[in-house]
Specification:
single chain; 118 residues; 6 helices; elongated
């Protein structure tokens, strides 16, 4: 799932504040300086996408990310591979660009996944 710039900025803020944030605090903390109403609109879109949950606190809502950034990145990688015409070629190109640390993490994750599938 791709996010627009403001959606991404809001999610980054929510990931940094797992305890949640109010819309006015989000708006005040974003470098682009959007209006609170704009932030509320984007929060509702993110809620419709299942990325944000809200909880009533007094007269306002506290917004929280429904999953961590790692889950979002994993889903984005899965979706990107699903769109690839040639998955093998896409994976080979990707692996050719990663650092040794990322390659080791991929190897470990695959070893663990294969080990649990047996």
């Amino acid at each position: 799932m791709q996010l627009g710039n403001l959606e991404r900025s809001i999610m980054e803020a929510l990931w940094r504040h797992p305890e949640g944030m109010f819309a006015h605090d989000l708006a005040a903390g974003l470098p682009s300086g959007p209006a609170v109403t704009t932030v509320l609109t984007v929060l509702m879109r993110l809620a419709n996408k299942g990325m944000v949950a809200r909880e009533r606190v007094g007269r306002a809502h506290l917004y929280k990310a429904t999953a961590g950034k790692d889950a979002f990145v994993a889903e984005a990688m899965r979706a990107a591979l699903e769109e690839a015409g040639d998955v093998v070629a896409a994976v080979q190109r990707f692996v050719g660009t990663v650092t040794p640390e990322v390659a080791a993490a991929l190897r470990d994750a695959l070893d663990e996944e294969i080990g649990t599938a047996r």
